[in-house]
Design goal:
alpha/beta, UDP-N-acetylmuramoyl-L-alanine:D-glutamate ligase, 8-stranded mixed β-sheet, 4-stranded mixed β-sheet, 14 strands
Length: about 325
């Protein structure tokens, strides 16, 4: 899809977001180590759910497609999604012994621990039936995360969704979101990611994730550059070193906003939501990268992921009062 049409479709503002919703619990008060905790607080989590919340807070109209467990935690996630005004009409509750993604996440930087439980993950039970219930012509854009590709039936469902999105001529945005514990091997992840990437219009990932795609952590930049020859926008995030955005045979280098982080989690989801939210607000790609970076910087200073996603005025105030590294 050409760049102009891609931006036009994003501005139409009707997003289908595919991927996991979960529940995160945080030892309380912030700074408490998990093994010493006596109190915990619960929040909505999961990469796609977080992205949906982030984009909704920035004015996006978002519908989430996933599966959750048919139990109290699944209902908690649904209640939280509804609280944040994310449309849950395509979320299916899985019976049997399915379990929602569940994480214990510390609000610490030093010796940080995030313990994630994915046994019998409900979101990976999303299947082709779920995709066939969707009229892709009703959406202007789809966003999906790479966690969906880790196993079947979710993997085959995603590829069916990509085919339907291409037929409907709507742009596809891919957050690589590599979680090693969900894959059988790096080789499998690389093959599946590359197959999916060929259908996409925007790809966002960090240096390790592109390294997985290349099956060589020293060649992540090379594969990002190669993908940019076929993909409209590729954003290669380098952690504290900022990012490089490949666009129209150009490379846009951006730094980060230095902050005193409370935790390392949620930054990637915040970046995606902020970046697409910037484009939705008709900002340039360069400004939107800065928007994503500001959103990520804000989120790591707060407890939680979904509740920490900033509103538009918070991002704009943050950018005015903070300086991005060059």
């Amino acid at each position: 899809m050409n760049f102009t049409k891609l931006l036009q479709k994003i501005i139409e503002n009707n997003f289908l977001i595919i991927g996991r919703a979960g529940v995160d619990i945080f030892p309380d008060p912030p700074g408490t180590k998990t093994e010493l905790a006596t109190n915990f607080v619960a929040h909505l989590g999961g990469s796609s759910a977080n992205i949906a919340v982030a984009l909704t807070k920035l004015g996006g109209k978002c519908k989430l497609l996933t599966s959750v467990s048919d139990d109290a935690l699944g209902r908690l996630a649904l209640n939280q999604l509804n609280y944040y005004n994310v449309d849950t009409s395509l979320v299916r509750s899985q019976k049997r012994e399915a379990r929602i993604s569940f994480a214990i996440v510390e609000s610490t930087i030093e010796d940080h621990q995030s313990i994630i439980y994915r046994n019998g993950a409900a979101d990976l039970l999303m299947n082709e039936y779920d995709i066939r219930q969707v009229d892709f012509g009703n959406f202007s854009c789809i966003i999906f995360t790479g966690t969906c590709l880790a196993a079947n039936p979710s993997r085959s469902a995603i590829f069916l969704a990509l085919d339907k999105a291409k037929t409907a001529n709507i742009p596809i945005i891919f957050d690589i979101d590599y979680r090693p514990y969900t894959w059988k091997s790096v080789e499998e992840a690389s093959q599946v990611y590359l197959r999916a990437a060929k259908s996409c219009d925007i790809i966002i990932g960090n240096d390790d994730e592109f390294g997985v795609m290349a099956m060589n952590y020293d060649k992540g930049m090379e594969i990002a550059r190669d993908l940019s020859k076929e993909v409209s926008i590729v954003v290669y995030k380098k952690g504290e070193k900022g990012s490089i955005t490949f666009l129209n045979n150009k490379e846009i280098n951006k730094g980060i906003f230095p902050v005193k982080a409370l935790k390392p989690t949620g930054a990637g989801d915040a970046f995606m939501g902020g970046f697409i939210g910037g484009l939705l607000s008709k900002k340039s790609v360069q400004e939107s990268v800065e928007y994503g970076s500001a959103s990520a910087a804000i989120v790591v200073t707060k407890v939680g992921c979904a509740p920490a996603m900033p509103l538009q005025n918070e991002i704009e105030d943050f950018i005015k009062s903070n300086t991005i590294n060059t």
